[in-house]
Amino acid sequence: MEEKYIVWHIEGGLGKNIAATSLLNSLKEKHPERKIVIVASYPEIFLNLPSVYRVYRLGSTQYFYDDYIKNKDTIVFKHEPYYETHHILKNKHLIANWCKILDIEYKNQSPVLNFNIIHQINATKWNREKPILLIQTNGGVLNSDLIYSWTRDLPFYLSTQIANKYKETHHIIQVCKPSSLKIEGAEIIDYTLSAMELFTLLAVSDKRILIDSSLQHAAVALNVPSTVFWIGTSPKNFGYALHNNIIANTPTDTTKLIDAYLFDYSFEGITHECPYYSLEEMFDVPKIIEKI
Questions:
Q1: Given pLDDT bands bounded at 50, 70 and 90, which one contains residue 186?
Q2: Is position 113 within any domain?
C-alpha cells in the first residue's frame, strides 16, 4: 500500500514552533492514514512527539522532493498564519488561525512538550538551595546587541523591583541576552542553551515572570501558570488563559506609525514606533508589584 503524507512547513521563532505542537494530535485524528512530516526552524521541539513521523530542519531537506513530493500522495501545508485576517486584526489566537489553515476544529488546543529520560536527568543541574524565581527580561535573537526591545522586553526598573520583592525567599535566575541589563544578585543565563534544556529550568521553577516569548508558550505545555507581561503584542494573538496576563496601559497614540503596514508594531521594537514617554505611562509599577 502506498504511504500517504502530510508535510507541515513551520517557519519563525521558537515560541511559534511550540504553539504548532498543539495541533499535531488534531491533525493526526483528521488524517489517521497519513504520516506527518515536519519541516521546522526548531526541529528539536517535535522529535519526541508520537504523532510525528519525521522531522527536518529548514534548509536540511536532502532528497525531500523524491521522498515526499514526486508521485507521492502528499498534502502540503506551507502557509503563514501571521498573515491571516483574524491574526492581523487581533481577533483570534495564533492556534485558531492555524486551525483554519489546516482545516481542523479549534478546541482551545494547548502546546505539547515531551522530556525524554536524559532531559529529566539533566534537569537536576538546576537544583538550588532556595526555590527558583525565573524571570525572563529579554527575548529575541540571542546575538543581537539591542539592550532593550520595548515591544516585548521587561523594563529594567520593573524587573529589578520584582526581583527585590523575592530575593529573600527565592533564588533569582534571569534569562536575557548578553547585551541586556543584568539584575544585581541574580544568576544570569545569557548564553545559548538547547530549547529543551531551557524548558527543564522552566519546569522546576517555583515562580515565573515572563514576557511574550518562547517560555510563555512552553509554560502552557508544562502546565505551570506564570505571570506574563504584554506591551507591543497581544495575548489575544499569543497568550493563554492559564497565565496571569498583565497588559501595558493603552498608549496615548501621539506616535505616528509611519512604517506600520499590516501590524502596528514590529517584533524588533523599532525605536521610533514606541508610543510611551515614561515607564509610569506604560505600567503602574507599585500596583503590579503588590499583586504579583
A1: very high
A2: no
Q: Judge contact between 122 and 200, C-beta under 8 A.
A: yes
Q: Tens of pLDDT along 116-148? A: 999 999 999 999 999 999 999 998 766 577 889
Do the domain assignments include residue 108? Answer: no
Grid coordinates belonging to 1: 500500500
Residues 86 and 211 in one domain: no
User: Are residues 257 and 139 part of one domain?
Assistant: yes
Backbone φ and ψ of 167, nearest 5°: -65, -25
pLDDT in tens, 205-253: 999 999 999 999 999 999 999 999 999 999 999 999 999 999 999 998 7
Nearest to 211 by CA among 135, 291, 131: 135
pTM score above 0.90: yes
Q: Is residue 237 exposed (0-12), middle (13-18) or buried (19+ Cβ within 10 Å)? A: buried
Q: Is 52 exposed, middle or buried (0-12, 13-18, 19+ CB in 10 A)?
A: buried
Please name the helix (run of DSSP H) or strand (run of DSSP E) that holds residue 188, with its range, or none. Answer: strand 187-189
